[in-house]
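User: Quick sanity check before I run a bigger batch. Here is a single chain. Can you write out its predicted 3D structure?
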Amino acid sequence: MRRGYKTDRARDLTEEVKQAAYRSFLMGEKPTASLLARRAGINRSTFYRHFYDVDDVISSIEDDIFQDVEEVLAGLDYEGGNVRFFHEVVALVEKNIPFLSYLLRAGGMGENRFFQRIIEYAEKNYLQGFLRSHPRIPAEECRLLFLYTLNGSIALIADWLRSDRTIGKERFAEMLDEYNRAAMGSLIRRGRRSVDVGDFVGD
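Assistant: Done. Predicted structure follows.
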């Protein structure tokens, strides 16, 4: 997005374009500059004064959502499972279903920059805390299992988005918590057994 709003109208126009894009996602359309300009009530030249292209609009929406993610999840503990944490995650997903569904239609999760940002955010904010809480667990094993459960959770969320969502959001959040708690709990138990054996051998 072309930074630095010179007027309130400029700021309002960029928001109108993003809302136009969101309506396109909701309707299952592929947004184009012409479509977004028309929906926002502007011409193409005005569109290009505010955004470089459609990808720039999508990137700006990603930034808005990611800021929301950071604000909602800040201070929430993830300890291999935390049902409140997953309720907040699912609420964020539900709030942004049209946009996330568009991303999945456009190219899936693999190389998508938004999903990669989520993975990097989670690794930075939750993996290091988990490692500090469990210093006796081999760090590389912990990191690999964390990435396994994180990517697995994202895959489950993507599948839930593609489905008719007969599993309600409350139950789905509980399932994510249960799966992550079970996976991370197995590593904690194995780490404790290794410590116990080491103490016994040392004696």
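Confidence is low (pLDDT under 50) at residues 195-203.

User: Great, the batch can go ahead then.
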